[in-house]
Amino acid sequence: MKKIRIFAMLLSLACATGFVACDDDEDVKQALQTPSVSDTFSDYQSLDFKWDAVDNTIQYGYKLYSSDDMVVEAGVTKGTEIRFTGLQPASTYKLLVWAFAGLDTDYSTSPAAELTATTAALKTLSTPTNVAVTNNTATWDAVENADSYSYTITTAEGGIVNSGTVTTTSVRISGLEEGEYNFSVKAATTQGGFLPESDTATVAFQFKASSPAYLWKATGTYYSYILNKSWDVTLFAYSDGTYSIPAFYGVEGYDLNFSVGDDGKLTILSGTSDYEDYFTVATGVPSVGDIFIYVAENSFSGFEGSSAGGDLWMSYYDADWTNWYESDTFNWTSSTPGGNSLTIDDLVGSYSSYFQGYDELGDEKNDNVDYEWYGAEITKVDDKTVAISNLYWTGYPVNGVVDFDNKTITISPQECGNYTLASVEGVDQSIVASINDDGSIFLPHVAYWYCWDPDWYYYTDLNITLTKSSETRSAKAKSHNSYHKRPLKASGKAHK
Fold first, then answer.
1. Which of 256, 274, 277, 469 has its CA 20 to 30 A from that of 435?
2. First CA to last CA across the chain, in angstroms?
3. How far does CA 470 lie from the centroid of its chain?
4. Secondary structure of the chain in the HEC alphabet?
5. pLDDT at 298
6. Is 58 exposed, middle or buried (0-12, 13-18, 19+ CB in 10 A)?
7. For the chain, which ranges sit under pLDDT 50?
8. pLDDT tens, 48-93?
């Protein structure tokens, strides 16, 4: 009996010292070391983490929690770094990482390491600066990282009259009634890491309507239904989309002025609209008196045409509102020298130059110049190209490519001394001139941009009409202010 007690004691001692395997020892394992975690990078939508390798580890488990303790992502990895993407900007996240040991080892899963990190906030685009409206053109400085700019024009009372989006840093303003307005602009971007729009910059300005530039004219036959007779009149087209037929019934001082909407509907500018869809227009002929032109439907009144030819038709009641007259008509066809067979040779010759608009380079130095000078010359380069000399200064010829079908001359940006001749819409934008029925040539919004400056500045915004002339004298000799620079807030600064 004594021997049995001694054996039991020895067996217990052996189990305690590890010389004999005991079943209870299989549940006793050493926990792996807790990973040491750090965050290494963050932007507005991603976080990067890494940790030191833990000995005896076969893989690592992780869980990422949002600020409201929701699991964003969970998994395992054999590596020691991980990136989380698609996260919310300016948000704090919590990461748990732990190490796993193999099943047949003396180690168990480590305690979880915990670390919080915050994604970056979205950046805000800079608000446009140096916003100014000069000569009915709004300009501002380019904003870094901006893709486009949205603008709004409002009345002084806050009513919106125009809005839009541009990729340049200037907007030409037209079609407003004279008065006080506000111009607002903000930058926009599609780049990641930025809020979509900047704050808004606003400036007050006064819109002053300038005289529209003459584009072309055409002479044709006007037929009066009420008189049952015809006569010749001349139609004038202007740059603001309006048209005029002086003395349309043959009486001086009684003109027909109108515009045409996108839907083809007429608006009679020289009449009054006292009745829905009717305009009261005075003819100046006693036997006719006023006529009441019906403009509601295109089939009754409308306009189609260009410098190449077209038609105007108008149905109306007489002065007593008793008789309905089907239609007065006006028809014209192209009278351009050479007609449809226009050639380069038809364009060659001497021209007088009629200037309207804004000029800070010549002797005029005025926001609303209106003058004429002589000496422009057009010469033939080849069968599709002309050279225009003395357009503004003596010398500095510029080349233009003629489109005979559309009767245009495209003048790409070209250097003229210390300036670049281009459209006012941009130093890299071509001028597209139109060849009128009477042989004159209209160049819209001609700009001379100063070349030698960190930024581009334009010094003219001129509508120039060239008319063939036998005169070769220079009525307005122009000075060449090569180094003159206007103050920024008053300049035509546009994007480089």
1. 256
2. 109
3. 43
4. CHHHHHHHHHHHHHHHHCCCCCHHHHHCCEECCCCCEEEEEECCCCEEEEECCCCCCCEEEEEEECCCCCEEEEEEECCCEEEECCCCCCCEEEEEEEEECCCCCCEECCCCEEEEEECCCCECCCCCCCCEEECCEEECCCCCCCCEEEEEEEECCCCEEEEEEECCCEEECCCCCCEEEEEEEEEECCCCCECCECCCEEEEEEECCCCCCEEEEEEEEEEECCCCEEEEEEEEEECCCEEEECCCCCCCCCCEEEEECCCCCEEECCCEEEECCEEEEECCCCCCCEEEEECCCCCCCEEEEECCEEEEEEEEECCCCCCEEEEEEEEEECCCCCHHHCCHHHHCEEEEEEEEEEECCCCCCEEEEEEEEEEEEEEEEECCEEEEECCCCCCCCEEEEEECCCCEEEECCEEECCEEEEECCCCCCCEEEEECCCCCEEEEEEEEEECCCCCEEECEEEEEEEEECCCCCCCCCCCCCCCCCCCHHHCEEECC
5. 78
6. middle
7. 1-24, 335-340, 454, 472-496
8. 999 999 999 999 999 999 999 999 999 999 999 999 999 999 899 9
